Amino acid sequence: MSESPQRADGDSREPALDLVGLTKRFGATTAVNGIDLRMPRGQLLALLGPNGAGKTTTIELCEGFLRPDAGTVRVLGLDPIASGAALRPMIGVMPQGGGAYPGIGCAEMLRLVASCGANPLDVDWLLDVLGLSTCGRTPFKRLSGGQQQRLSLACAIVNRPELVFLDEPTSGMDPQARRLVWELLAALRADGVSVLLTTHLMEEAETLADHVVIIDHGEIVASGSPTALTNGDPENTQVRFRARAGLDTRLLAAALPEGYAVRETSPGSYRVDGSVDPQVISAVTAWCAQQGVLAEHLQVGKRDLEDVFLELTGRELRT
């Protein structure tokens, strides 16, 4: 990149975020329930959770858009409400839902945001980096969903913030745009910018995050690096394979030693959890032969972040 989105100078002795006993209620509903979270500077932290778990509320408390009912919030060492005027030039915010004027042109919107900063990035360079140069005159409301997301991201980083809040930054993007954004976020982190993002894409969190926090019902249920969260029991590996949908997995479970779990994770996708050895692989292929099917794309590996997420938050659909 020819232009470096480096952070502004700040007091690096203070953490990027320091939340203690953070609580927020909406009537009888407790959206955030006593969260303690400390995020060092220069880190990319992924905040994960099902719909309604409290992710967006937590971010809005950090941004100063909501006032906590209990606990304390410090962002770059400052109270986001009492010191909001001092904090705003130091942070970037990418909300869900775009955050731009519907009728304003793409480039005009970014220049408007850049005019509020003391040392903004070059707007034309940033539009080019995010693949928006060809739609600079297109009104926001006529951009595709992915283009709107990329413009919202550009608005969040154009003024060289020290800390960026990104709520579902790649939602609605095609794979090429998503990879482009991942590269930009990696460059931000390399330049020392602190990034807090929420995402429903486990691959995104696993690829980008230094630290992952999983919350459910307003409480932290797991915290650690992606590697630490997915390693778990080193003996707990798994076999994944594809075959005809709807096979009777009880027959395979009966052919395996006690303690193994077998399930069809989605139509035609099967998984065996347990300590995998050559005998287990042989049992899987023999069972497939008995069913008259071929075990395709057979892979042996450890559980991934999605497995951990589902184990902690359940498999039921949230609204």
From TrEMBL:
Domain of life of the source: Bacteria
A molecular function GO annotation: ATP binding
Location of this chain's protein in the cell: Cell membrane
Keywords associated with the record: Antibiotic resistance, ATP-binding, Nucleotide-binding, Transport
Domain ABC transporter: 17-242
Coiled coil: none
Membrane topology: Peripheral membrane protein
Chief place where the protein resides: membrane
PROSITE patterns: ABC_TRANSPORTER_1 (PS00211), ABC_TRANSPORTER_2 (PS50893)
InterPro entries: AAA+_ATPase, ABC_transporter-like_ATP-bd, ABC_transporter-like_CS, ABC_transporter_ATP-binding, P-loop_NTPase
Pfam families documented for this protein: ABC_tran
SMART domains registered for this protein in UniProt: AAA (SM00382)
ATP-binding recorded as keyword: yes
Protein name: ABC transporter ATP-binding protein
Organism: Haloechinothrix salitolerans
Source lineage: Bacteria, Bacillati, Actinomycetota, Actinomycetes, Pseudonocardiales
